[in-house]
Please model this.
Amino acid sequence: MREVAKIQQKHTQKSLFGLLFVSALMMLYSVIYPAETGEMIRKSAILFAEKVFPSLFAFSVCAKMLVKSGICKKLEKTPIRHLFSLFSVSFGGFSALLLGFLSGFPVGAHILSDLLEKGEIQRKEAENLLPFCNNAGASFVIGTVGVTVFDSARVGRYLFFAQIAAALLAVSLTAGRRKETLSSSKFDEKTPASVSAVFTSAISESALAMISVCGYVVFFSVLTSIFLQIFRTFLPFSDVVFFAFLGGIFELSGGVFLLSEATFPTLGKLVLCGALLGFGGISVFLQVADRAEKAKLPLSFYLKGKCMTMMFSAGFAPLFCFLGEKSFGLFWICMIFTGIFTINLIKNKIIFQKSVEKRKGMLYNRNEIHCP
Model:
């Protein structure tokens, strides 16, 4: 126990040292270059107002209204309930995935914490689904990434489908971690909130969340610009693509705009865009961490899950764009999703059920009483 405490103390000290270093660096830069710092903040705020806020706010409000009005109980009574067991998720987990695919960063974390507070999802399942419920929204991927980087909304749609396919594949491959939580997923029998309470709370909570997101976007955009200037000074031979990737790792929207200025083959841009969309950036990670800490939701699996979706999305992005431009492109994309559903069916229904039956048989034979 003492060794564990020492290790945790060392990690805390390193984190505090890193925080002090970043704070001192930004303060020093602001004192030496006040005009440049102010211009960075202005551009970052405009970027958020023009690109990020329009793609997030409406989805955030609608998602909160759906969760607060009890979407999980309603999904339980529809034919879509058969998909729950296919992906080894509960009613709450499936609604979090569905809304997280459409809403954008970091709305998925807010949805999971709300469901956890309402008792509609277990803590372990929420921890496992956290990396896969936080994705770039459709409006951002299609309208910002597709149009800005590739000058094509069609490419943006393919990138969005690739991101969803990557998240679904990761969900199917991690199904074994959630099996034991499905039987214990229950709904809290509470008095339903009034329509006015659901509506007003959804708007007010989403507005406060947008202010927080704006702060993260502006701060990390400025921090990324400072680091990129340092790299340009000491590494003048570095390519623009390297700066775009580094910027995207810190803050996704800024990295996307850097990538739009790079003269790079389309295939490489697709792979890089897919990877950045799958990961989300350090800024999104800290936004998710802030919400998860308030909900007492562990983050031990988040980075592993995001690295998994990052690899899958980087591979799916060029594949979807290549197939989409061919004849019957939509058919081939649908076949990829069908393949993912087939993997779920084989892995989670057939193989898992056989393993459960085998364990039950071994337990029965072990406890069998042999009479003389």
